[in-house]
Structure formats: structure tokens, C-alpha cells
Design a protein that fits this description.
This protein has about 80 residues and is α+β, with helices and mostly antiparallel strands. It has one domain. About 15% of the residues lie in helices and about 35% in strands. The termini are far apart.
Length: about 80
């Protein structure tokens, strides 16, 4: 991707709950904003990012919510 044209570029992989599958990516945009892009299977539970991102970036993409995808609130 070309950052000079206002596009984003990946800064971290989103790792699935199996601990090795890449289920998506964290992108940084020219504006400084961060966003998640999923692989072709769409949103899936995430166990971590590789490399690790800072706490502010985790909050911006709501990493806690990404780790709860597919889990019911009842248990």
C-alpha cells in the first residue's frame, strides 16, 4: 500500500485463538488512526497481536472486544 496516497499500511497481525493463525491485521492510516482488516473469513476471535502494539492502539481497535468475538455473555 502507498502511504503517500492516503492509504493504510499493516503494523501488526491479529493472531487467532489457536495461537498461530493470522485472522486479520491492524492498519495505521496516514491520519494516524488505526483500524482492523479481517481475512476472507471475516471477524474471528483474537488472542494477541504480533508484534505487540501499545496500549493506546489496543484501546483504539478495542482489542478486548476482538478477543470476545463469538463468546456469549452468559458464560
Amino acid at each position: 500500500m502507498n502511504e503517500e496516497k492516503g492509504e493504510g499500511f499493516p503494523i501488526a497481525n491479529l493472531i487467532g485463538t489457536d495461537g498461530c493463525s493470522i485472522v486479520g491485521w491492524v492498519y495505521r492510516w496516514k491520519t494516524g488512526a488505526h483500524a482492523v482488516m479481517w481475512d476472507v473469513d471475516g471477524p474471528q476471535p483474537v488472542s494477541e497481536t504480533q508484534p505487540d502494539i501499545n496500549d493506546e492502539q489496543k484501546q483504539e481497535i478495542d482489542l478486548d472486544a476482538l478477543m470476545r468475538i463469538g463468546k456469549s455473555d452468559s458464560g
